[in-house]
Amino acid sequence: MKKFELFYPLKNYWRNQTFGEATQCLDSAGKVVPKIDGVCPIGTKDLYASMGLLGHNGEDLMAIDGQKVYCAQDGVVVEVQTEPERGLGIGIISNDHWDLGELGAHQIKMRYWHLKGFNCKMGDSVKVGQVIGYADNTGYSSGTHLHFEIKPVEYNPDGSYINVFQSNGMFGAIDPQSYWNKVYSQDIWFFYKLIEILKITINFFKLKK
């Protein structure tokens, strides 16, 4: 079984908040503000604690308004929705089980949040390098960026799925940092197209024989 890997969904990869950080607060107007010396300013509350989290359950990647977001691993779209906290988002579950080392072998749900819009719909099969959405700052956000998170999941016999580590304080999310393969997703798309062209060319010459 292959070890799990992720392709960067944005170009370039600039991380401005890591997994597990708890440095942000929320004011009464829904605006995100930073902690001061590790404490939320008066009149605000801890952003992640207010959502029932121990800390940030993904990585925040810097983006510009409307920047294309690319699929980080092949899978099927299982979520296209909006939430007050995270804004517009997409959830994709990997086609295969992957080796996560000490965490076992699982399929992976990848979530992309704070989007401006979608380029896919429920049930779509998507591949690495495919444009799936566009970056924005919808939901609780201090600026345009992509919130990216991953969750090991397993399907039930009835077709529903569960987050394997739901009780870990991060709603089942795990740190994606060690799984990035340092290859940009959008660059892979060109290889797919080249392979398709080669297949068509080979089939053409076979028919000519």
Structure description:
The protein is mainly beta and 209 residues long. The protein is 13% helix and 38% strand. It is globular, with a radius of gyration of 19 Å.
Short account of what is shown:
The chain is mainly β and 209 residues long. It contains two helices and 16 strands.
Q: Compute the average pLDDT.
A: 92
User: H/E element string?
Assistant: EEEEEHEEEEEEEEEEEH
Q: Which class of secondary structure composition applies to the elements?
A: mainly beta
- Measured between the Cα atoms of the first and last residue, the distance is 39 Å
Q: Which blocks of ≥5 consecutive residues have pLDDT under 50? A: none
Let me know the largest β-sheet.
Answer: 11 strands, antiparallel
Mass-distribution shape: globular
Helix content: 10-25%
How many extended strands?
16
Strand content bin: 35-45%
Radius of gyration, rounded?
19 Å
Continuous helix count? 2
Topology:
Layout: E1 6-8, E2 15-17, E3 24-26, E4 32-34, E5 45-46, H1 47-50, E6 59-62, E7 68-70, E8 75-83, E9 87-94, E10 98-99, E11 105-118, E12 125-126, E13 131-135, E14 145-155, E15 161-163, E16 180-184, H2 185-208
